[in-house]
Amino acid sequence: MPGVSLRIDDNEVDASPGESVMQAAVRVGVKVPGLCQMDGVSVVGACRLCMVEVAGTPRPRPACATPVAEAMDVHTDTEQLREHRKVLLEMLFAEGQHVCAVCVANGACELQTLAAQVGVDHANFTPPPSRLTMDLSHPRFGYDPSRCVLCTRCVRACAEVEGAFTWGVAGRGREAHLVADLGRPWGEAESCTSCGKCVSVCPTGAMFEKGTSVGQRRVKRALVSTLTSRRERESAREVLK
Amino acid sequence: MSNGVDLFDLSQKEREAQAAYRRHVLCCGSTACLSGGAQATQDAIEAEIKERGLEQDVRVVATGCMGLCSRGPLVKVRTRGEDDVLYADVDADAGRRIVDEHVADGQPVADGQLSLQHPFFARQERVVLENMGEIDPNRIEEYIARGGYRALRDAVTTMTPAGVIEVVQRSGLRGRGGGGYPAGTKWGLLAKAQSDHKTVIANGDEGDPGAYMDRTVMEDDPHRVLEGMALAAYATGAKHGYIYVRAEYPVAVRRLEQAIRQAKRHKLLGKGLFGTEFEFNVEIRIGAGAFVCGEETALMASIMGQRGTPVLRPPYPTERGLWGEPSMINNVETLANVPTILRRGAEWFASIGTDTSRGTKVFALAGKLENTGLIEVPMGITLREIVEEIGGGVAGGKAFKAAQTGGPSGGCIPIKHIDTSMDYDSLLALGSIMGSGGLIVMDEDVAMPEVARFFMRFCMDESCGKCLPCRAGTFEMYELLDAICEGRATAANLARLETLCDVVRTDSLCGLGQTAPNPVLSTLHYFRDEYEARVVPDTVAAAVAADAGGASAHERSA
Amino acid sequence: MSKARVATVWLAGCSGCHMSFLDLDEWLIELSQLVDLVYSPIADVKAFPENVDVTLVEGAVANTDNLELLKEVRERSKVVVAFGDCAVHGNTSAMRNPLGDPGELVAEAYRDAVTKLHGELPNPENGVVPALLPRVLPAHEVVHIDAFLPGCPPSAERIRIAVEALLAGESPELAPELRRFG
Amino acid sequence: MSVAAGPGAAGATPDRAPVRPDDDPRAALLEKQLKKVRYRADALIEVLHAVQDIYGFLSPEVLHTVADELELPPSRVLGVATFYHLFSFEPRGEHTCTVCTGTACFVKGADALIEGVSEAFGVAKGETREDGKLSLLEARCIGSCGLAPVALLDAAVVAKTTPEALVAAIRKVGVNGEAVADDAADATAGSDEGGAA
Predict the structure, then answer these.
(1) Do A4-77 and A83-229 fold alike per CATH?
(2) Which residues in chain B (492-511) have CB-CB distances under 8 A to chain A?
(3) What average pLDDT is seen over chain A?
(4) Among B181, B384, B517, C155, which one is most buried in terms of CB atoms within 10 A?
(5) What is the pLDDT of residue A229?
(6) Which of C71, C133, C144 is facing B549, going by the closest CB pair?
(7) Does residue B471 have a pLDDT over 90?
(8) pLDDT exceeding 90 applies to what percent of chain C?
(9) What is the pLDDT of residue D183?
(10) How far apart are CA B540 and CA C83, in angstroms?
(11) What mean pLDDT is predicted for residues B184-199?
(12) Burial class (CB in 10 A: 0-12, 13-18, 19+), A55
């Protein structure tokens, strides 16, 4: 398949058609910030942190959901983008109760790292009422909605990779929140297979393994992307056999 | 009925039947008049006519909206060879009196008459609303008698699909849902798409709070919507259509369901229409209370029984839409223009309006005016003409302050721009939008930051919650606007509000978020002094914040 | 050159930030050549003095005493720094906010719980304990803050970089890895 | 069925609403509606409308039944049900006063209507009074902008109204003042139910 070439922050990049700008950027060492994007699950373009400027388009576009095109001229780190990312992250903090000091994911949190990178050095926390109750009903895992950033990685991993559809989003707007099955405690969700994929993909400490304390998050976020890429590779091999 | 000749017969028969009556009493049976007691009025009129034994001579019709909703119930008496006489505020007693004096004795009642030469009526130009107040929306015969379905018959039997698109393109018709995208171009995109499962969708999810144009068209002239859809389907190669209607409009749903049954019975929907291969069916889908479903991709998700959350475009619906197949979404009013355009020609339509905004626009004229109701005017009319002539000026002798168009996605037009031309581009230049047709007039008593807060509250409540800027941004903007309105915001808060406007407008995923800051930006642009007058020094704000325990979500440092 | 007048205050926090400050070890000796510590929980000074150049504020604003002191600090200091996560965003001190009315929390702890502390409620009226604010506030919600020094606690390294910059009259620029919350 | 909660599991769980018509006449109505849409998953919103019509609100038990019957994951059913504002998860009051808060009504004082009713009857916006007599709701826009401000009292439109007039109209259908003061008044004014229609 003929490739396309484009420019990302003054780097010449060769990419394959169908690749996203974000994927192409990573290959030349340009890391576009993002929270909802995750290899191995579908793209939703919802967190808007990976917005990039593409010459000739009226407004920034999400790098995760924008396919590469020939002669595209992409800028990922302009002053406006930096300023907007900072505001977006401040808003994300204001939605929850992201107290890093007492979080399983302290030191291994994508939100924490992004905030430091982008320069968010203070914030306010005002979680909506639907985010207050911690769910510790599952024997192995816990869920703290006040740390949820609604990236829906867990929803997608549960549906697309595990096929259980346990997690869903209920409510809307600021009241949008995760639910297991019909909004019952997680431990009572009949559809849950306790596979832990949701916990592994969580960018923050919203989903965690029980028995882990501050800064002790162990699960690898790459689990789901490894599974899906392995599945693709190996099933291709099966076909050849 | 299998061909056009029968259609013509039916039309002829209906006209003859109507002509047999000497007088017609047209009672407005629209939702607005009904809520003002129109049913009791009509019942009284019918009883009185029966009592006097006039049934053979006089026909009573419950029609659709006559427009001047603030003066309902409205009753029109039509007599062969005479000018129509319109009565306003007709209660049951007044209705009986109209029968006694006017219908029976030919002496129009002096009280309660409204001149049809009144600018409210005289300044209008009716295309979409041409049948309103004239026909009984429950009867397909009346629609047909006024030329209905003729455009469809002629298109299907004598024109190519490309020919139909060409006419729509040449007419200059633009989408009436708000964006103003050229309808012919959109139709062309769907026509080009390759699929046996294309769909046309009529968007009747009229979400702008303060607008009821589409509702009225669906309720009071449902066949017009069906004919417009069928024309779109023929032109684009779609076999299936959906009408997505707000659940808040149960009458519209009932009338459309009935219209679909009637059209099927008369072989105007279904297979092998007009003796050709053309086939088209329509289904109704009902919303459940979500403004965001007016957005194309959210609307399609809702039709498929899912959460109405928008998805990224491209791909556009005309490439990949409902069930993954090419689909096209047109606003109800856009589609309602089409039968008339086909019947009267692209040139006729293009002669109305301005160079870039052809045709008419229906507005729901509301707010602090003498006359409020539903109006249809040629685009290019000035706001002043609408407010002062059609609307009869601001009520109670107060001063005009601003008019809001485009609802929560739009902006306000202040007095200094009252002579602006009402067309897509002029409104955009003023920082507002045409929108779907809500036009709310505000007088001197209305505080603009409170208007902005009202719309932001709406956007916050209606945000779907999928993308961060809209979900969190509308909340934070609402909190800031509330702080401003309640006198506990600082200059830094105002600056933060402007920053948020920029971020939410630029970074949101769909139109709801991208346009949510518009009412703030627009009122800030024209009425900044009202915001600044409410801003307080840091020390005052700190004291308030401490007393309330910092109940507001805003930050105080710049 | 006269020495800079520096103060540190301790609002609603665990004193961990001050402990971290003490971790500056021998640099503290150098610092003492440059500054006069005019007010601090580790210095025996009763009232917050006038004309302070730099004040580091540890802790969130949780009660009326915190509120009064912070206002005083702002009035009497040229530069006010939010020192550590509690001052920066409320942190653990603010975790009571979603639970609502602090009166109920106090009643639960002092009167209603099985393992109650006293059996009677602390009474702010008698002036011994300050009244709790309805909501715990980060410092910037009460007064203007000139610089933020995140961390729970901020490491000695961060503190040194920040203080050095402030004494040089500059706004502290922390590298990304040094401005992480938590 | 695509979810873990298969038909076997359904029988074992006590909190499903009865689906057999002989258990509950309302179940027969629901079943009829499900048949009408041919158990198609994409008809979920119509089915939820039907459930609300039949039962008055969406209970977890009925939602479970709907999920089973349409073969949809329960999380998706709840997601849809909670997305749309017209669906209610608790029973509505005997009478419902819905104040239109569209722009035209806002400009003409919808806030005062809500406040007036709220104060006169002791019921918060969006809620049902404790005695179940009255729910006070908001509607986005009921499309009667020419008659602003308007409210719906049960199914009847109260047009160009004022707080006083609306309060009087609500009293007329048989709702008394504050819920607490109701006991005494009940004996005299309990017979006028449903008078609005």
Answers:
(1) no
(2) 499-500, 502-503, 506-509
(3) 94
(4) B517
(5) 94
(6) C133
(7) yes
(8) 73
(9) 44
(10) 25
(11) 97
(12) exposed
Residues of chain A with pLDDT under 70: 1, 240-241
Q: Amino acid identity, residue B207?
A: G
Mutate to test the interface with D, among B363, B440, B448, B466 (most CBs of D within 10 A): B440
Distance from chain centroid for Cα D155: 12
Backbone φ and ψ of C62, nearest 5°: -115, -25
Backbone angles phi, psi at A61, to 5 degrees: -125, 150
The CATH fold of domain A4-77: Ubiquitin-like (UB roll) (3.10.20)
Q: Which residue has the tokens 């009284």?
A: B44
DSSP string computed for A62-102: EGGG-B--TT-EEES--HHHHHHHHHHHHHHHHHS---GGG
What's the pLDDT at B8? 79
Report the alpha-carbon distance of residue B497 to residue D8 in Å, rounded: 55
Q: Which residue is it, tokens 């809702």?
A: B302
Q: Which domains does chain B have, with CATH numbers?
A: 19-122 (3.40.30.10), 147-350 (3.40.50.11540), 360-446 (3.10.20.600), 449-547 (1.20.1440.230)
Q: CA-to-CA distance for B495 and B112, rounded, in angstroms?
A: 54
Structure tokens at B97: 């009196």
pLDDT over 90, % of chain A: 87
Domain that holds residue C45: 4-97+131-175
Q: Is the peptide bond before D149 cis (omega within 30 degrees of 0)?
A: yes
Rounded to a whole number, what is the largest CA-CA distance in chain D? 57
Q: Is residue C142 part of a domain?
A: yes
CB-based contact C35:C41 (threshold 8 Å): no
Q: What is the per-residue pLDDT for C1?
A: 57
Residue B368: DSSP 8-state: S
CATH 3.40.30.10 boundaries in chain D:
95-186
Show which subunits contact C, needing at least 3 CB pairs below 8 angstroms.
A, B
**Contact (CB<8Å) A60/B507:** yes
Q: Tell me the chain A residues in contact with residue D74 when contact means C-beta distances shorter than 8 Å.
A: 181-182, 191
Please indicate whether, in this complex, the C-beta atoms of B555 and C144 are within 8 angstroms of each other: no
Return d(Cα B38, Cα B36) in angstroms, integer: 6
pLDDT per residue over D66-95, tens digit each?
Answer: 999 999 999 999 999 999 999 999 888 899
Describe the strand order of the beta sheet including B360-367 as a list of residue ranges. B373-378, B360-367, B438-443, B400-405, B411-414
Is residue B283 within a helix (H) or strand (E), and if so which, with residue range? strand B281-286
Are B470 and A91 a contacting pair, CB within 8 Å?
no
Reported pTM:
0.91
Identify the DSSP state of B278. Answer: -
pLDDT at D124: 92
- Model confidence at B84, pLDDT cuts 50, 70, 90, reads very high
Predicted-complex ipTM score? 0.92
Residue with tokens 């009902």: B286
At C44 the pLDDT is 87
The string of pLDDT tens digits covering residues B289-343 is 999 999 999 999 999 999 999 999 889 999 999 999 999 999 999 999 999 999 9
Can you read off the two tokens belonging to residue B158? 């004598």
